[in-house]
Amino acid sequence: MSLGRALLCIIFPPLAVLDRGCGTILIVIALTAAGWVPGAVAALFLNYQANRRY
Domain tally for the chain? Predict the structure, then answer.
């Protein structure tokens, strides 16, 4: 995960997962609406998982 993407996860979480799909975006939007921290944590987790190599 790049530094720019990580900062985007913290500043505006839904924008950071824009390329992940509609369901993921809606989940992050709902978590961000419930509180900024859950949305940011979910965005960071989803971006980390997407770039993880097995």
Answer: 1
